[in-house]
Design goal:
- By secondary structure, the protein is mainly alpha-helical.
- Helix content is 48%, strand content 0%.
- The longest helix has 17 residues.
């Protein structure tokens, strides 16, 4: 099954709807993060803080320069908090030619 994020799913809709959908998606994802996933949490927090600055004023009449910034924000944050590996999946066994991972300091 292929995952389609809100940025792709909302193509063709008004910019404000697309931005609000992605913002809601990131907020929901942040709520489900593990406490120790600091990198993803930081990435989401930065994305939300950035778009928060653009979602002020009269959202019914957004200047084109702000629409352009919103478009860049969508593209820049399209894959934030996505993972190529399903979190519930078992890790793949190493291949014969794979280098062993160095030990971790726990």
């Amino acid at each position: 099954m292929t995952h389609i994020n809100s940025v792709d799913a909302t193509m063709g809709q008004p910019m404000i709807a697309r931005v609000q959908a992605r913002k809601a998606e990131l907020e929901a994802r942040r709520e489900t993060l593990r406490e120790d996933d600091l990198q993803t949490r930081s990435d989401i927090d930065l994305a939300l803080a950035t778009i928060g600055e653009l979602l002020t004023g009269d959202l019914g009449h957004i200047p084109q320069v702000v629409v352009a910034d919103m478009s860049r924000w969508l593209e820049r944050n399209k894959h934030v908090a996505e993972s190529a590996v399903d979190a519930d999946a078992e890790p793949l066994p190493p291949t014969a030619d794979a280098e062993p991972l160095p030990p971790t300091a726990d």
